[in-house]
Specification:
The chain is built from six helices and eleven strands. By secondary structure, it is of the alpha+beta class. Strands 1-5-6-4-3-2 form a six-stranded mixed β-sheet, covered by helices on one side. It has a three-stranded antiparallel β-sheet with strand order 7-9-10. The protein is globular.
C-alpha cells in the first residue's frame, strides 16, 4: 500500500480515508454480488488476501456529474463516520478497513457465517420465547444508539445481522443515518422498525413489544420514556395517513 496518499483521519475516528486507491482493472474476477439497491451495490471481494464486503455507490446518470460526485463523497464519508461513532459507543458494527472516496467504496469486515435477522426469523419462526435473548439484545442496542444521538434511518430486520456461532447482533447499513438529538427522529426510527416487522413478519407484534420493553428498561438517562411517548404520536399520524390514503 505504499505510495497511497492518506487524508488526515482525525475527523473520522477509527476509519482511515484512502483517496487514491486504484483497484487494478475495475471489477475483479472474484467479486460476488451480494445485494443491490437504488443507491449502492454490495459484494464480496478480496483485500490483501482476506475476504471483505465492499459497499459501492455507483454513479447516477440522471444527476450532473459534479453534483453526483459531491453527494457520493458526502454519503460515503457520512456512513463511515456513523460506523465509527457506533464503534466508539459500543454498538456492534462490521469493522471498516478503509474508504475509497474517489470510487465511492467502503471496504468492510466480511461477517462469516452471519445471517440477517430477517432470515433468522423466516427460518425459526416468530415465537417470541424462541428469540427472547435476541429481542433483548436488539432493544438494548437501539437504546444505546439513540442514547448517543445516532439515528439509523433504515431500521429493518434486513439491516441487522446475527453471528450464528456466537449468537451476537451486528448492525449494518448506516447509509441513511444521522446524528440527532430529536426525540421525533428517534421515535420515527422505531416506527420504521415496527412497520418493517408488521410487513415482513406477520403476527410478530409480540417480538416488537419485547424489543421496546428492553429498549425502555436498558435506558439509564430517562430519555427512552420521551421517545416512546413520541412513538405513540408517530403511530397516530401514520394511521391517519393510511386511512386517508
Amino acid at each position: 500500500m505504499q505510495g497511497m496518499k492518506k487524508k488526515n483521519c482525525a475527523e473520522v475516528p477509527v476509519v482511515c480515508i484512502l483517496v487514491d486507491l486504484e483497484p487494478a482493472g475495475g471489477p475483479m474476477a472474484g467479486q460476488v454480488l451480494s445485494a443491490q439497491g437504488a443507491e449502492a451495490k454490495v459484494y464480496v471481494d478480496q483485500l490483501l488476501g482476506r475476504e471483505v464486503i465492499v459497499k459501492e455507490r455507483f454513479p447516477k446518470k440522471y444527476r450532473h456529474p459534479a453534483l453526483d460526485a459531491k453527494l457520493t463523497k458526502q454519503r460515503i464519508l457520512g456512513e463511515a463516520r456513523a460506523i465509527a461513532r457506533c464503534k466508539d459507543v459500543g454498538v456492534p458494527t462490521p469493522s471498516v478497513f478503509f474508504v475509497d472516496v474517489a470510487d465511492g467504496k467502503i471496504y468492510m469486515e466480511y461477517l462469516d457465517g452471519a445471517v440477517t435477522v430477517k432470515q433468522h426469523f423466516f427460518t425459526h419462526g416468530v415465537d417470541p420465547d424462541t428469540h427472547s435473548g435476541l429481542l433483548v439484545e436488539i432493544g438494548k442496542t437501539l437504546c444505546r444508539l439513540h442514547s448517543n444521538n445516532i439515528v439509523h434511518g433504515d431500521l429493518t430486520t434486513s439491516n441487522m445481522m446475527l453471528r450464528v456461532r456466537t449468537n451476537s447482533l451486528v448492525m449494518i447499513d448506516f447509509g441513511l443515518s444521522q446524528v440527532s438529538t430529536s426525540v421525533e427522529d428517534k421515535a420515527v426510527d422505531l416506527y420504521v422498525l415496527e412497520r418493517a416487522f408488521s410487513s415482513t413478519h406477520p403476527q410478530s407484534e409480540e417480538l416488537f413489544h419485547r424489543i421496546i420493553k428492553a429498549y425502555d428498561e436498558s435506558d439509564k438517562s430517562g430519555s427512552a420514556a420521551h421517545v416512546l411517548k413520541k412513538l405513540e404520536d408517530v403511530r397516530s399520524r401514520g394511521r391517519k395517513r393510511t386511512m386517508l390514503g
